[in-house]
Structure formats: structure tokens, C-alpha cells
Design brief:
Distance between the termini: 18 Å
Shape: globular
Number of strands: 0
Largest sheet: none
Strand content: under 5%
Radius of gyration: 19 Å
Helix content: over 70%
């Protein structure tokens, strides 16, 4: 893997992490949990997206090439996150909610344009698969990280309703299942040859070890951990839950980084 490939992979992952951080906030009430949790999550999102855009701009400017359309959408999203941070820090929860929804809608547009840029296929199904995988990764990365951070938050504020932690646990579990489902569709599409470029550039038989690591560590073990975290939260045993979530975060992040590597190298959304 050369330096350029590493920058591309880092850019891809930072975008997914940034979008996941603020996308997960849609499922939680800021008035109840507290503005500090939401402002810290939005800071994570802003820093990650800002770093991703710096890498992105440097890459295109150093090659003296024009920026793709999704780059401008991501800049607008970053501005929206700054506005959201201002609203949430000022306790303007109503305005913060609408800015969060608007940023979420722009995220969907940006991810689709990004998938269209990455896809070498002229077929619509190829672009849709790229978008679907990116959206599933956003949901997975965001839900596992937010679940872990929220579990930390409950150690600080013991009087918060446990139902929100249970709720995020459910979101994490469904996100893993959704990601596995979308990945299954990608492989089904590849096998049937609906996107001809997949079969040409991705010799599955030569990448079995990387695939086993990506899906075993990045999806199937986190699926087991997601059920385990839900069970410990119901007891409730938050100390055990946070240990499980720490491990889940490490495995999910590892799987997604490897997934971005396979996606960029072999032009198939994984």
C-alpha cells in the first residue's frame, strides 16, 4: 500500500466516522441527555470531516486536478456542523435539531455523489451499491461509537434514563444486520454479473484471507458483541457493556478501514 492509497483510505474512513457521529445524534434527545454530550459528538464530527477535507484538497491540488462535485457538498456539511455546534452550545435545541436534519439530508446527497465518483460502472445499480454500502458503514460506525460514548456518559450522569442507552444498543445491532444485508446484496449482484466491472477487477478467489478478516472481524464478531452489549445493558451492568463496546469499536473500525482498502483497490463496495 503506497502513501497515496493510505491517504485515500484515511479520507474515506474519516468521512464515514464524521457522518456517523452526527447521524447517530438524530436518535437521541438533546434536552434530556444534555448539550455537552451533543457538542462533544459534533466536535468529533467536525474535526474528522475537517481533517478528511484537508487530505482531500491536498490530493487534488497537488495533482492539479479539478475537485469532484461531492467535495463541495462536504464543505457545506462542515459549515452546517459548525452551525449545529453553535446552536447546541447555545441551548437552542429546536434550531439545532433542524440543522442536524439538514446536514443529514446533505450527507445522503454527498454520499451518493461520492459513490458515483468511486464507481467505475456506468450502470445505475453500481452507483446505488456504492451509496448503500457507504450509508450502511456510516450507520454502523456512528452507532457503535455513539453507544460507547453514551455508556461513558451514564457513568457521569447516573440519573439519565437507561432507555436511551438501550435504544442506541438496538440501533447498533440493527446497523450491523443492515450492513451484513447490504454486503450480501453486493456479493449476489457480483455473482450474477449485474455489474460487469466487479467480475473483471475483483478476483474473489485471490482475496479470501482479506475478505475473511474484513467480514469476520468487522461484521460477524461485532454482531455477537452487539447482542452481548444489549444483554448487559438490560441487567443493567454498564461496566460490562462498555468493555464490550470498546472491543466492538476496535473491531468495527478495523473492518471498515480494511473495507475501504478493498473498495478502493478492487472497485467493489465492501
Amino acid at each position: 500500500m503506497d502513501l497515496l492509497s493510505f491517504k485515500d483510505i484515511l479520507f474515506q474512513f474519516l468521512v464515514l466516522f464524521s457522518f456517523g457521529c452526527f447521524f447517530s445524534l438524530i436518535f437521541l434527545p438533546a434536552q434530556t441527555i444534555g448539550f455537552r454530550f451533543f457538542s462533544s459528538q459534533s466536535l468529533f464530527s467536525m474535526i474528522a470531516l475537517g481533517g478528511a477535507l484537508i487530505l482531500h484538497f491536498y490530493h487534488f491540488f497537488s495533482e492539479d486536478s479539478s475537485l469532484p462535485l461531492f467535495s463541495y457538498v462536504y464543505v457545506v456539511i462542515l459549515v452546517g456542523l459548525v452551525i449545529y455546534y453553535f446552536f447546541i452550545s447555545s441551548h437552542k435545541f429546536f434550531l439545532a435539531w433542524y440543522s442536524l436534519i439538514l446536514s443529514g439530508l446533505l450527507m445522503v446527497v454527498g454520499l451518493y455523489l461520492h459513490g458515483e465518483f468511486l464507481s467505475t460502472s456506468q450502470e445505475a445499480v453500481g452507483r446505488i451499491l456504492y451509496f448503500s454500502q457507504a450509508f450502511a458503514s456510516v450507520a454502523l460506525v456512528g452507532s457503535v461509537f455513539t453507544s460507547m460514548m453514551l455508556c461513558h456518559w451514564f457513568f457521569v450522569f447516573h440519573k439519565l434514563p437507561i432507555k436511551y442507552l438501550k435504544y442506541m444498543g438496538h440501533v447498533f445491532t440493527f446497523s450491523v444486520i443492515f450492513k451484513i444485508f447490504v454486503t450480501g446484496i453486493v456479493f449476489w449482484t457480483w455473482r450474477l454479473g449485474y455489474v460487469s466491472e466487479f467480475g473483471e477487477v475483483f478476483p474473489l478467489e485471490h482475496n479470501l484471507i482479506l475478505l475473511y478478516v474484513r467480514f469476520g472481524i468487522g461484521l460477524f464478531i461485532p454482531l455477537v458483541l452487539s447482542f452481548g452489549s444489549e444483554m448487559t445493558i438490560k441487567i443493567p451492568s454498564n461496566h460490562s457493556a462498555i468493555g464490550i463496546l470498546y472491543l466492538a469499536v476496535i473491531l468495527v473500525f478495523t473492518g471498515e478501514v480494511l473495507g475501504q482498502y478493498l473498495t478502493l483497490i478492487h472497485q467493489i463496495p465492501l
